[in-house]
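Dear support,

We are seeing what looks like truncated structure output for some complexes. This example has two components. We would appreciate it if you could run it in full and send us the complete C-alpha cell output so we can diff it against ours.
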Amino acid sequence: MEKEIKQVIAEALSVLYEIKSSKDRIQIQKTRKEFAGDYTFNVFPFLKEIRKAPEQAGNEIGQFLVEKGGLVHAFNVIKGFVNLEIKQDNWIDILNTIAQSDFNLPEKNEKVVIEYSSPNTNKPLHLGHIRNNLLGDSLSRILKASGRDVIQVNLVNDRGIHICKSMLAWEKWGNGETPENAGLKGDKLVGNYYVKFDQENKKLVSDNNEETELLKEAREMLRKWEKGDEKVCALWEKMNNWVYKGFEETYKRLGITFDKIYYESETYKLGKDKVLKGLEKGILLQKDDQSVWADLTDHKLDEKILLRADGTSVYMTQDIGTAILRHQDFSPNKMIYVVGNEQDYHFTVLKIVLKKLGYEWSEFIEHFSYGMVELPHGKMKSREGTVVDADDLMEEVVAQARKMAEESDKLSYLSEEEKANVFELIGLGALKYYILKVDPRKNMMFNPEESVQLQGNTGPFIQYSYARSKSVLRKAAEQNIIIPERIDEGNPDEKEVQIIKLLADYKSVLEEAGKVMSPALIANYAFTLAKEFNQFYYDHAILKEENEQIRNLRLLITAVFGEVIKHALSLLGITSPERM
RNA sequence: GGUUCCGUAGCUCAGCUGGAUAGAGCACCAGAUUUCUAAUCUGGCGGUCCCAGGUUCGAAUCCUGGCGGAAUCACCA
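Here is the complete output from our reference environment:
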C-alpha cells in the first residue's frame, strides 16, 4: 500500500514541481489517530525545491491526488503534513489479496549457516541458553520465511579443561553413580560433579592464584585426552553421552532442532593443523615456551594465544577449525553465530585471524551478538545457586498455565491428555514470547513472576486471540455458514480498516525482521495485531450480524487474522491452540 | 585504565533510515458479561526521553563532552 502511495506522490511532485526520481526520499507514515486520514505524507523534505509555504504545497499535492482518482479520495493538511484518506474499495482489494497469499517471501538466493545453542557438556542448560536457543530457532524460521536457504547447526563444546574437571570429580567421588541408578538426567548428574570439583578445589586453595594439585590433575587429564589415552577417552565418551541424552530432552521440549551437529572434539584438530601451517608460513609466531600466537597489533589489538606451551588447543583454535569445516561443508554466503555479546571480542579476533590465514570468506561471518539475561536479584552464578535451570523453568511455566486454566475451569470438556497438551503450548508460549519480545541486542531483565503472566503483553494473550478467531469459524461451520474466500464489495468501518491495514503490513514486517534479524519485530507486531482483533471482536458481532455483506466481511477478516497471527507466532516457535 | 554497548512512566519494554501533542503492558484507581471464549474490553493516574552543549525548518533519534550501568581486555569456553 505504502508503495502505491509513494508512486502517486512521486508523480505529483514530478508534474507539479518537476522534482524527478523522488521516490526514495518520500516519507509516508500512518496518520496519527487524532487526525482524519489513513496515511500521511510529509512535505518538509521537499520544501526547498518546491519553494512554497508548506500548507500551500500540501494542498496542491492533495488536490492532485484526489483529482487523479484511484487511491485517494480526500485529504487535509496540517502544517506540512498531508493526511490522505484511502478509498474504501482499496481496503476490500487488499483484504482479498492477503486472503489469497501465503506469507513466505520470494527466494533470495542466499545461503545461511546459523549456529546457535553451542552448549558445554559439563553442565545443564540454563536460562542464558534458553535465550540463545529461542533466538537462534526464531531467527532461523524468520530467515527461511523471508526467502533464504537456512542450515541450522549446533556446535557442541565437548572437550576442554572444564569437561575434565567433571570427569575427574566423578572418578574421585562418584562411586559409580549413573543417571540410571541416581534417577537423574545425565546433564544434571555431570553438572553436579563440575560443582563438586569446584568445591573440593576451593578447600585446597589458600590464595586465588594458586594452582592446586587437583587442577594439575585435570590439566594432565586434558593432555591425556588429546593424546588419545584409552581410559580417559572411554570415560569422556560415557559421560558425554549422559549429557547428550539430557540435552535431547531439553531441546525436544523447547521445540529446537538442528540440521547438523558439530563436535569440537572433531574440529579442533583441523584448527590446530591450520594454526601450525600458519606458523610455518610465518603468519603466526612462536614464543620461547613453544606456545603459538597471532599478532594483532596492526589491528590495534593485543596478541592472542592459539596453542598452549604444552601444545593443547584453546577455544579460538577449535573455532578456527569449525569455521573452516563449516565453510567447506556448505559454502554459504553468510555464517551467523548466535552468541552472547560477552564474546564480541572473540569474534572480532576470529575474523581477523581467519583472514590472516588467508580465508577471504571470514567476512561472511556475522556475530549475532545478543544481550545478557539479568535476574531481579542480580546475576546468575552457579556457585551461589542463582542459576535458573532450563528444565525447571519450563516445568514452572507449564504448571502456571495449568493452574490458571483450572481456576477458570474453561477446558473441563477436554481429556486429560488434550488439556496437558494445551497447557504445554501456553506455558511455553508465555516463556518464548517473554524472551523474544525484547530487542535481542539489549540486555534483558528476566522476572520469573512476569514470565508466567498470561495477561497483557504476553504470548497467551496472542494465543487467546487466535483461539477466539478459530472458535468463531468453528461455530460458523456448525451453522453451515460458509466462510468466504474473497468478497466483492463492502464498507469496512474504522476498526475494520484498522485491522486490514495491520494485516497488510505483515509482509513488510517479516521482510524487515529478516533484514535486521530481530524476532522482536515479529513479536511486537503480533501483539499489536492481537490487541486490534480483540477490540474488533468485542464490539462487532460476526456470526450474529444479520447483514450478509457485513457478516462476510467480518468473517473474512477473522479468517485472515487467524492465518496471519498463526504464521507470525510460528516464526517465534509458538504454537497457536485451536481452543484455550 | 582502554574498547564496545546501554540509559525513555514506579517496574518491564516499543519508538523504522531525524517529523505532528513520546507509546504499550504490568502495578494502582474506576467501569463493562441477557450477546460468537472476561486469559477480554473501556476510561483514569503516571514523563526535565540521564545531564550540558551543538547540527536544523524540526532531535528521544545525529555529533561532542560529562555522569551512571553492563560487557570485555584469560594459556575458561
